[in-house]
Amino acid sequence: MICAGIDIGSRSIELVLVENEKVIETRQTDTGFDPISQARKVMKGIKFDQIMATGYGRNLFEVAYDDASTVTEIKAHAAGVRCEFPEALAILDIGGQDSKSIRLNDQGRVVKFEMNDRCAAGTGKFLEIMAHNLGFSLDEFGPAALAAQKDLQINSMCTVFAESEVTSLIAKGQDRQEIARGLHSSVVKRAVGMLNRVGAQGPIVFSGGVAQNPCMVQMMADALGKEILVPDHPQMMGALGAAMIMAAKQ
Amino acid sequence: MREDYTPMWESLGMDLSAHDALLGVLEQGYRDIYLAQKNRPEGMGYFDFVMSEVHGLRIKELLDEKKQNRKIIGSYCVFVPEEIVLAGGATLIGLCSGADFAVEEVEKHLPRNTCSLIKSSFGFKLGKVCPYLECADMIVGENTCDGKKKAYEIFAGMVDNLYVMDLPQVKSTQGRALLKEEFERFKTAVEELTGNKITVEALKEGIKVVNAKRAALHRLAILRKADPAPISGLDALLANQVFFYDNPARFTESVNKICDELEVRIKENQGAFPSKTPRILISGCPMAVPNWKLPWIIETSGAVIVGEEACVGERGTRNLTDDSGQSLDELMEAFTDRYFKVDCAIFTPNQERSDHIVDMAQAYGANGVIHYGLQFCQPYIMESIPVENTLENLGIPCMRIETDYGMEDVGQLKTRVEAFIEQISD
Ligand code: SF4
Ligand code: SF4
User: Fold this and answer.
1) Cross-chain CB nearest to B412 (options A71, A75, A118)
2) Under DSSP, is residue A225 helix (H, G, I), strand (E, B) or coil?
3) Which strands make up the sheet holding A90-94, listed edge to edge?
4) Gene3D superfamilies per the record (chain B) (predicted)?
5) I need a labelling partner for B277 at 20 to 30 A (CA). Which of B22, B44, B171, B225 fits?
């Protein structure tokens, strides 16, 4: 039996196929303006027996595909992360337009979670816009910040205000890399706050697209004073979890 | 064909086209949220009727009462004693404030970071869309939270019949004395308004009527302990909302009728939702008509609400008044005692509320508690973190939600609520 998990996020769509508890296929695409036709595209040519959707587009998907089930991104992430790291007790997920923190018990059940509210502050989108302002590509941004000697403090978490702060720092002739590091540091502070609010303890997994940024991982580890676990494909955790939950139902 | 109430609304000086728009939204909301529910008790038909006539027949009744020289008093808080109003031969109406209206106008008078409830009360006045407000002979405000206190100072310039009741903030001997004095002052004000002297008999009768309607809601609350829950949280909330403006005797009778029906349902093991549906207790700010947003999200996400720890709910109706006193003073003492137990978050300290939330969660077999705070409502949001800690230390999952009357955050809220339901039902 092949189970599929599809994570329809606001920026990207991931698909994972699982057979006998093994991942046999992963795919990814942009969400674009029409999530359902993008989902169709990503599913083209693959075969599965059951599918479970997660992410903000899950309900749209359920309407479009009669036999799909849904699960929230919270539970899906928990399942996906535990599949790769059975010892995980906390999760930080920072994606394109949202972020969340989750605390798990020993059995991997969600006992507390937090989600960011209605804005881009502290998400991948924030870093993306700032990278652009500083003239870095997204791939350069993390390493550049990591190489900086110190961070220049950025006071505003609001994307719009932070943008003007950055502009005035550039105008003052401040170092681009140090500004970049300051921006990372402000996202880290917010993430640590979110983890604290759920009482995160023990092994922590960092997932979502932003976990691919080496500076974020390093600074999170420094801020928490411990190693941070990062999956090989941090963006796939939601889809993987959905597929695993579907498989467990059978 | 429904009666044409336009002349009546016009005579109240209302803005007819704005009012049409409001009624349109209300009807649509009611259809989508209430009438779309499955397995409703038949007795809810009464409340469907009440809601369809909320600005019609009920207003006509009130205007008929006014023609008989009966006074109408409007209030915004459960601290305003209906017993005294009834004893004075007047009618008390709760003014609802559960929807955004005339927001731009409102923000000329109030800062943006004011809670939705206060903004709404201004919006209904400034938009001239609330027939209850327009037909009231006296409007009672109260010194509860800072937002309301200051808002009434401004509101006083918009109406000519505002009476402000002071309230204690500490449950001390002095606090109780203040409450009693304020009830005495209110009694005099009601007597002056109506021209009727309040007698022992009248007060006893008032207490009896109000006790009866509270008792009917207690009966309803207890029936919700059953699994499967015999009635949805939305429907039970509606009964608690209508409590504030229906004719008291008719309300009591209708709720009791529903309870009879629910008793049969429970015997037959029938519910509004299947048995073992995850059960949620809501706790926090009052939900006034037509603020059904959060309960609707919860009950369309696979859970059932089994209780409301709120002023539109058990906090407001919890205790009855001892009516055994034989003198005016004994009776005034008795209901000062009764009201002094209301554990509104404006009191400090307020351990009782936290204890009540725990009691209710256990008594109603809730799998989790959702704390509902209106954005910018300092008293309830400040209490929400200690409440959450208390509950979680006892192993009762709790999620804090802060929202307003807007619909922009429905998608986000739905995800959070669904995830919470997954968390408590696994
Ligand atoms: S919450 Fe407090 S202020 Fe509001 S109605 Fe209840 S008692 Fe009154
Ligand atoms: S909801 Fe809170 S802020 Fe608003 S009136 Fe009630 S107590 Fe005051």
Assistant:
1) A118
2) coil
3) A110-115, A99-104, A90-94, A204-207, A228-229
4) 1.20.1270.370, 3.40.50.11890, 3.40.50.11900
5) B44
The reply to whether ligand 2 has any atom less than 6 angstroms from the CB of B118 is yes
Cβ B365 vs Cβ B229: under 8 Å: no
Name the packing angle between helices B233-242 and B200-223 (round to 10°).
Answer: 170
Beta-carbon pairs below 8 A across chains A and B = 36
DSSP state, residue A188: H
> CA–CA separation, B54 vs B285, rounded Å?
23
- The segment(s) of chain A belonging to CATH 3.30.420.40 are 1-85+235-250, 87-230
In the prediction, which pLDDT does B275 show? 96
In chain B, which residues have pLDDT < 70? 1-2, 426
Bridge partners of A7, per DSSP, are A14, A54
Query: What's the CATH class of domain A1-85+235-250?
Result: alpha beta
Question: Are the CB atoms for A18 and A79 separated by under 8 Å?
Answer: no
Task: Count CB-CB contacts under 10 A for residue B172.
Answer: 10
Residues 335-394 (B) with a CB less than 8 A from some CB of A: 392
Q: What is the CATH number of domain A87-230?
A: 3.30.420.40
Split at pLDDT 50, 70, 90, the class of A118 is: low
Other beta carbons less than 10 A from residue B324's beta carbon: 10
User: Cβ contacts of residue B69 below 8 Å, gap of 6+?
Assistant: none
* pTM of the predicted model as reported, rounded to 2 decimal places: 0.94
Q: Which of B19, B10, B26 is nearest to B63 (CA)?
A: B10
Q: Which ligand number lies closest to the CA of residue B379?
A: 2
B122 CB within 6 A, ligand 2: no
The ipTM assigned to this model is: 0.90
B contact residues 401-420, partner A, Cβ 8 Å cutoff: 408-409, 411-412, 415-416, 418-419
DSSP 3-state of A6: strand
Query: For A231-235, which contacts have Cβ atoms below 8 Å and span 24 or more sequence positions?
Result: A231/A81, A231/A84, A231/A85, A231/A205, A231/A207, A232/A84, A233/A26, A234/A206, A234/A207, A234/A208, A234/A209, A235/A12, A235/A14, A235/A28, A235/A95, A235/A207, A235/A208, A235/A209
